[in-house]
Automatic annotation (TrEMBL), chain A:
Keywords: Membrane, Transmembrane, Transmembrane helix. It comes from the Bacteria. It holds the Pfam family DUF2243. This is DUF2243 domain-containing protein. InterPro entries: DUF2243_membrane. It comes from Paenibacillus antarcticus. The chain crosses the membrane at residues 21-45, 65-83, 95-114, 134-152. The keyword Cytoplasm does not apply.
């Protein structure tokens, strides 16, 4: 028998993997925003510092955990994505919703808790910081809100019941 | 001077000879031993050995940056590559059956279960580093030869246990869940990163500030690089293990 395509798991199967699509997106968003933070703000602009003498111990711990987690999340989410593709269960909109959600949460946590409360490091030094903080945190909020909207709109509960799904 | 130069060289040569002998004997009875494992074993042993003897080891007595490079080779890169060369599986293939059975029984025993558990292995590995750089063991090992040797031995063995408890390329009788290993990895990598930043901020006693800065950065980014490989293999194994489930339910090809 040559190449006969038997599709048994599309598109209804997506709904069984809606959580994995969302998680893959969230972890990827986490990794992407941490990567941008490291490359753009630490390495290219040199606005952020590797270590700031006013950093509290809890800030150092939080930074270490997030750094380790971002590595883990980037690679893990890519493998989860391959897994979803392999199962024909990849769901682009839900995945993008996850990315926005993950990057928004990280950015907001970084902007409010790590920069301001734990005083890990500031966005930039020797300038009036309040404008930078507002832009940073409002951008985070925008990411987060769009992520929440897309995630709610792609909720499996809102999809049509299984009988009405057309198989191709 | 005699032991400090020759003993590690003799151990390295013996390790190569044993490995080669075992693969030759294994090739007679089983599938050919893959080439990449020879490469992993040779580079792995040389990485670890270079931290104990030779020019890098000599330089490490004088310079903290060289010490840190040695630490990365001895405790991280070397163990990772040696784990990838599957020495336990090879040993069991080569031994006579009754010996192999005793070794298997030992590997399955309670103490080995306990010490090879990811949480124990991570505590030994990262906890040991905190003792070395955070609790004054570093300056003690510069003055006392016995402590020096014990610390190097510990760094290698703990690094090996840690790596082998997280990725299952070699035989691993006691397996733990992906969730537990994920959790342990993140905490352990974070512990390594935090310690490097503390060294960067305040190097251990007796180290010039400039060497402490570079040493801390080297530990941080060098550690990241090897962690990246470890994480990649970990997720690759997850990806492959969830495939069997896939083939059961789907016929798309």
């Amino acid at each position: 028998m040559d190449k006969v395509k038997i599709r048994m798991n599309k598109p209804a199967d997506r709904r069984n993997y809606s959580a994995r699509n969302l998680w893959s997106g969230i972890l990827f968003g986490f990794g992407v925003i941490a990567f941008i933070d490291e490359v753009v703000f630490h390495q290219l602009l040199h606005w952020h510092h590797f270590y700031d003498k006013s950093t509290s111990d809890i800030g150092l711990v939080s930074d270490g955990l997030f750094h380790a987690f971002s590595f883990f999340a980037t690679i893990g989410s890519s493998f989860m994505l391959s897994d979803l593709r392999r199962r024909d269960a990849f769901w682009l909109r839900r995945w993008i919703g996850g990315i926005l959600l993950g990057s928004g949460i990280f950015q907001l946590y970084d902007g409010i808790i790590q920069h301001k409360l734990m005083r890990l490091h500031q966005i930039r030094y020797n300038v009036d910081i309040s404008l930078y903080d507002w832009v940073w945190n409002l951008a985070a909020l925008a990411l987060l809100i769009s992520g929440v909207v897309i995630t709610l709109r792609t909720s499996p509960k809102r999809m049509p019941p299984e009988e009405s799904v057309q198989y191709d | 001077m005699f032991p400090s130069i020759f003993i590690p060289v003799i151990i390295t040569a013996a390790a190569f000879a044993l490995y080669l002998y075992a693969t030759l004997s294994s090739n007679k009875r089983f599938q050919r031993w893959p080439m990449y494992r020879y490469g992993c074993f040779i580079i792995g042993v040389l990485s670890s050995a270079s931290a104990v003897t030779g020019p890098l080891a000599d330089w490490a007595h004088l310079d903290f940056r060289a010490h840190m490079l040695g630490h990365l080779l001895l405790g991280m890169l070397g163990p990772l590559l040696i784990v990838l060369s599957s020495p336990v599986a090879l040993a069991l293939r080569t031994m006579e059956v009754h010996w192999a059975r005793s070794v298997t029984r030992l590997l399955k025993s309670k103490p080995v279960l306990w010490i090879s558990h990811p949480i124990t292995a991570a505590t030994l590995n990262i906890g040991g580093l905190w003792l070395i750089y955070g609790a004054g063991l570093y300056s003690a090992m510069q003055h006392n030869m016995l402590i020096h040797i014990l610390v190097h031995f510990h760094v290698f063995v703990a690094g090996y246990l840690f790596t082998a408890s997280l990725i299952y390329t070699d035989l691993a009788p006691h397996r733990t869940s992906y969730n537990l290993r994920s959790f342990v990895m993140i905490i352990a990598f974070a512990g390594h990163g935090i310690l490097s930043k503390l060294i960067y901020a305040e190097p251990p006693e007796g180290i010039p500030q400039a060497q402490g800065l570079t040493g801390g950065l080297l530990m941080y980014y060098g550690g990241d690089l090897i962690d990246l490989v470890l994480i990649f293999i970990f997720w690759l194994q997850w990806y492959r293990s969830s495939q069997s489930l896939f083939s059961k339910f789907s016929m798309t090809r």
